Amino acid sequence: MCGIVAYRGLRPALPALLQGLSRLEYRGYDSTGVALNPGDGHPVEVYRAAGRLPELAAVLPAAGQVSCTGIAHTRWATHGAPTVANAHPHVDCTGTVAVVHNGTLDDAAELAAELTAAGHLLSSDVDTELVAHLVESHLSPITTGAGPTAAAVVAAVGAATARLRGSWALAVTVRGLDAVVLARHRSPLLVGEGDDFTMASSDQLGFATEVHTVRELAEGDIVVLGDRHGWFDHTGRAVTTPRPGRPAEPPAAPADRGGADDFTAKEIDDQPAAAEHLIATVAGRLARGALLHDLGLPTGERIRLVACGSSAYAARVTARVLATVAGIPATVVIASEATADAAEPDTLTIAFSQSGETADVLAALDHWHDPLLAVTNNPQSTLARRSDAVLGLGCGPEFGVAATKSFTNQVLAGSALALSLASALGRLSVGELVGFEDQLAQVPARMAATHRLSAGPARDLARRLAMHPAFIYTSRGAGVPYAFEGALKLKELAYRWVEALPAGELKHGPLALIQAGTPVILVQARPLDRLAVNGREMAARGARLIIIGPGEDADVPVAAADHEPPWGPLESVIALQHFARETTRHLGHDVDRPRNLAKSVTVE
User: Fold this and answer.
1) Is the Cα torsion angle 543, 544, 545, 546 positive or negative in sign?
2) DSSP code for 144
3) DSSP assignment of 496-541, as one string?
4) Residues 37-50: pLDDT tens digits?
5) Mean pLDDT, contiguous 10-residue spans, the chain (604 residues)
6) What pLDDT is recorded for position 20?
7) How far apart are CA 25 and CA 22, in angstroms?
8) What is the C-alpha separation between 48 and 385, in angstroms, rounded?
9) How many of the other CB atoms lie within 10 Å of CB of 512?
10) Helix/strand/coil (H, E, C) string of 6-63?
């Protein structure tokens, strides 16, 4: 969560900062702000707003800004409500130090008490403000006409971060110094270099198109963006040889809905093409474990799958394919609840994360030292860089906060890995593997057909059910993860209370929730006869059954396979996405930017 942009160059900073913020707004949109540093001893100018970039634009001065140094931030609230007072950048008592920050400070209460006792005046509820006061306390008093040196600010930032516990990516600018000082610990931060400027950003999307080289801050690094750049490691030692950079990726195309009403609609529509692209990358590489071997990974008998949210449901599908096809009982670990388990030999850990920056996943991986595979849509992410191998999703940018095409491609990637492992271990005959490969190849066409078939019925159903306060989502067998994923979409986007559970569990307590008219979304999956029994049990209590699946009796039709593949009714997810989106639109909510959420969950 949260997005940082910093700029120091020969041109006015504000346009680059605002452009970067617009590209990083998916990381948080509770509030936003910029600080512009003239660098000539004049005060740092801070502009902040609750809300999104249009609200910030309304408070910016009409005259053009000529400051060539600045920092900016778009926020997802962790400490304090999304108000102007809590928006970044934050300043110290004197207005000398301005700071933007991603991450959370575990010792915020302790530091606040200490700083208040020392006479500092705190004006917000935000942990970031404490960093500004800590830097202030370590800077020598600034005399009239003489600002601090870069060395003094680096020392002050180093002393301040030595006091912190938690996670942070920091950009600091100080009155009288025409520079930005960066620091990083357990939160991503990149430096981008152009011909006449340097930038910093939470990810490469925030960089101007003229950036040609990208360097990552390592844990504990402090970096100066100024006339004389400086790079210091976690010990404070100057790094005389520049860290290896990598060429900047081609600039992402401007966010374009492609004629759709919102990004979520476009990304639902993108799924058949995204699936086809991924399947093409693994086609012909499943036999005898070639996919795993190509990635340089072992073919052991123990698999640990680590993920959160939608990615965890994709992991559950992968675990089922591993169990049913490869005979391997995989362990699915919810990353936010991970604990160190007993080390076992021949274990492969697979981490699923759309962004590759999910803080809970990164923290969970500290528990183990097994070979690590990242399944992510961001091959330049923190997760990818710390993994032994990466299987990219190749989805292209996903701007809607709710995962759509990234989820379906995670399912397909996990299933391909499971099939490849099964082949490597001799658990599949050549004919069986060919059959599964054929089923994979048919997925994009079935997804496209489901997209066409389900959009209209989902819209009609949403009109009838949108005002209902609570729903139940259920299925059996391979359909259960998709019922959970569909329920999550309705929670995220439409703000509806949803109970999601296997159909057989209803009679063990949750059946008490059903009364006349309770909507029950039933995702068709085999065994259909047992699911039908569960449906009759619910209907007998007055439930309004909504069938998602193939056949004439389906309320929202799905183009399913004749024989259910081991990854189950994946196509049903598209119908569930349509229903969640249409319900959200009927209720008048923002489909792409749901309240309280952000795309990249970079806090624990």
Assistant:
1) negative
2) T
3) -EEEEEEGGGGGGTGGGG--TT-EEEEE--SSHHHHHHHHHHHHHT
4) 998 888 999 999 99
5) 90 93 81 91 91 88 80 83 90 94 92 94 93 91 62 92 94 95 92 94 88 90 87 77 72 71 96 97 93 91 94 98 94 92 82 91 91 93 92 92 96 97 94 96 98 97 96 97 98 97 93 94 91 92 96 92 94 98 97 82 54
6) 92
7) 5
8) 34
9) 9
10) EEEECCCHHHHHHHHHHHHHHHCCCEEEEEEECCCCCCCEEEEEECCHHHHHHHCCCC
Question: Residue by residue, what is the 3-state secondary structure of 62-83?
Answer: CCCCCCCEEEEEEECCCCCCCC
Tens digit of each residue's pLDDT (9 = 90 or more) over 322-340: 999 999 989 999 999 998 8
Q: What is the dihedral of CA 498, 503, 507, 511, to 10 degrees?
A: 30
186, 341, 344, 365, 386 from 336: Cα distances, Å: 15, 14, 21, 11, 19
User: Which residues participate in catalysis according to the annotation?
Assistant: 2, 599
Query: H-helix or E-strand containing 432?
Result: helix 430-465
Dihedral pair phi/psi, residue 514, rounded to 5°:
-80, 130
Kindly calculate the radius of gyration of the chain based on its CA atoms and give it in whole angstroms: 26
Q: How many CB atoms lie under 10 A from the CB of residue 536?
A: 11
What DSSP string describes 385-409?
Answer: HHSSEEEE-------SSS-SHHHHH
Kindly list the structural domains of the chain, giving each domain's residue range(s) and its CATH number in brackets, ordered by start: 3-244 (3.60.20.10), 263-587 (3.40.50.10490)
Three-class secondary structure of residue 166 per DSSP = strand
Q: Is 140 exposed, middle or buried (0-12, 13-18, 19+ CB in 10 A)?
A: exposed
pLDDT in the model for residue 23: 84
| Cα–Cα nearest to 274, from 171, 356, 392, 433 | 392
What is the per-residue pLDDT for 254? 56
Residue 106 in tokens: 């575990």
